[in-house]
Design a protein that fits this description.
The complex is a heterodimer of chains A (126) and B (627). Chain A is built from five helices and five strands; from the N terminus they run E-H-E-H-E-H-E-H-E-H. By secondary structure, chain A is of the alpha/beta class. In chain A, strands 2-1-3-4-5 form a five-stranded parallel β-sheet, with helices on both faces. In chain A, helix 2 packs parallel to helix 3. The longest helix of chain A is centred in the first third of the chain and has 13 residues. The mean pLDDT of chain A is 91. The C terminus of chain B is likely disordered. The relative contact order of chain B is 0.05. The chains are: A alpha/beta (126), B alpha+beta (627). The interface between A and B is medium-sized, with 18 and 22 residues.
Chain lengths: 126, 627
Amino acid sequence: MSGRLLLVEDNELNRDMLTRRLARAGYDIAHAGDGEAAIATARRLRPDLILMDISIPKVDGYEATRQLKADPATAQIPVIVLTAHALPEDEQTARRAGANDFATKPVDFNALLEKISALLEPPTPA
Amino acid sequence: MMSETVLPLLEAVSHLPDGLLIVDGSGHIVYANRTAVEMLGYAAPELGDMPLSDLTSCSAEVEAVAGHGAHGDPPAEFSLTTDLCCKPGHQIRCELVVRRFHHGEQPHALVLLKPVPAPVGPLSEGDERLLFNIVENFPMAVLLKDIDHGFRYARVNKGFESMFDVTRDMILGRTERDILPKEEAEIITEYYREIVGGNNTLQGTVQPLTTNRGRRFVRSFNNIIPDESGGPKYILSVLEDRTDEVMRERHARIQSARMENYLRVADSALMDINRTGIIVTANEKLAAACGASVANLVGRDFRDMPFGDDEHRVWITVLGAALQGRQSEGAVDTFEASLGGIYFRWKVLANEHRSRDEIFSVTVVGEDITEINQRRLEAERANRSKSEFLANMSHELRTPLNAIIGYSEMLQELAGEDGRTEDIGDLQRIIGAGRHLLGLINQILDLAKIESGRTDVDIEQVNLHELLEDIRNVGARMIEANGNEYLVQGRLSSPLFTDELKLKQVLLNLVTNAAKFTQNGKIVLRYEVDAADVRFSVTDTGVGIPKEAHSRIFDAFTQADGSTTRQFGGTGLGLAICRRLCEALGGSIAVDSAPGKGSSFTIVLPQGRAPGRAAERPARAEVGTMP
């Protein structure tokens, strides 16, 4: 596995844990701790995929996702919303904001890796 | 010589109210004023030079006054009453006042003609009969009372007999005292005395009379008939029966008083509006809401009432429809809207609603539901804050749990890679506990959602075999872990309609429960689905539940006893959620079990309806129609 992921996460423990586990899985990780930083970093670094927390300072994850998807420069970057907001309506809101996929915390790490690789390597036509 | 005063004088004489003739010494008329000309019917030229003897047989006396009579010394003035012959060949009776005067040397007679009413001549026999018949058949009661003989009845007609249900033989020569109660008779006698004395009007007031035909309301029209000397002889009385009118008025008065009482004491706000939207009736409650008096409100346009913000439209829509006859016959429209800060549920009905043209008025009745609405809003608010609390709690618990499980999993991987096998088991226990905590959080959220009524029931046709296969797959690990055998058997004789996810959650819970509490035994899932009922049961050969615990196990955080959790794990929420879900589907769940004999849980659901959904209430400011 390879690729550069932008991990948007304001909780220090979760950021550290996810960074280390994703790194062990072979990904390069960039960080953003709030919504504004997420948008700026995404524009600057053009990551291959974004893992987006929802409850983050300044601009929340839904709004950051909307803005990234509205900007042609970043619209093509897949976004997986990764949040502790676990109600069905939270997933609907995330998908309406433009998220490509949705995963809840506590995260099922293997399932998350599958979602990431599915978005990074679109199935090639047979 | 004509002074300036002579001509107006002549004009005045010509218009005297009495006829005036001037007769010369030869007995010829030399002047007749206009009144005399009109009275006698001749043209003025015809009268000039006409001998007075053509008009009256008493011409000689007049001529004598003028000086040429055969009488020796005639009087200068006299008067007499005589018949004058008028032009059309009939006579008028006149008093002639005659006075002598001299014009130059010639004596003349000035004659004033004053008509006197001719005495009525004797009636013919035919006339009398006609008159009798007129009075006898007059369509009102007619009576004649003899004033000099104690107001006794002298004559009555058929109308009188019928009004009092008496015959004239019974009452002629008698008085009111003989046909009416004493007090009524005295009032009437007193009234007759007063009109004879000129102390009361001839038109009487409506008087209640107790007759043989019951209580009648009668009004009299009276006149006094004089005797030959002009003194009062009879009272002629015509009686009009006003009973029907009086009863109608009384009924209307009672209705109106009753209506006013209803309006005054009603807890509801009430008003009637006419076809143009003007308030014609209003009560205190409505006036209070409008901050006006009833008198102030009546006559105003309902559109000027102090409607709540954004509620103008619903008023205009509902009342407008009723005023225009667009309400279906007999319908009552309802809506909820505030007025002057009070929250009402309004009902609107058209009166006299047979066709569009016949709408007489529209009645609007408002029930004060401020308190009900307040409670409703508070309940909604409480529910919202409860939901928000739960969502926040869930979020806050999941965030650290993510770190706990994530780090543990990572350490477990590292321990495996580094060959530290002694740590792997402990790390697995941390992960297990973390997942258990996650299960608890999920189930508490589930339970809270069901209890707050926020669970939508989504009825659809269920592919039962697929659903049962899913349960087998998901539950397989737990079933096998305790060495259990799992059987599914049943009959599907009609398509199953219910909420698939909820049914699945319940059945999975029952199957995993059974697997948890059964060692090396048998678990059987049975189903029976027909057009009316849906029945599932999950039976195991496990530890069983003592009878005294049966009623508790469906409560939240309860297992059969406190040691169960330690021995078997679980959150104690599973069966509570099952019961709530079954109830949301309109069904029920029951247990049959005994210690050591295994357990059997049975759920019964109705087919294809959604009775668990909260009954819908009318939305605020939204129109609804009650049949």
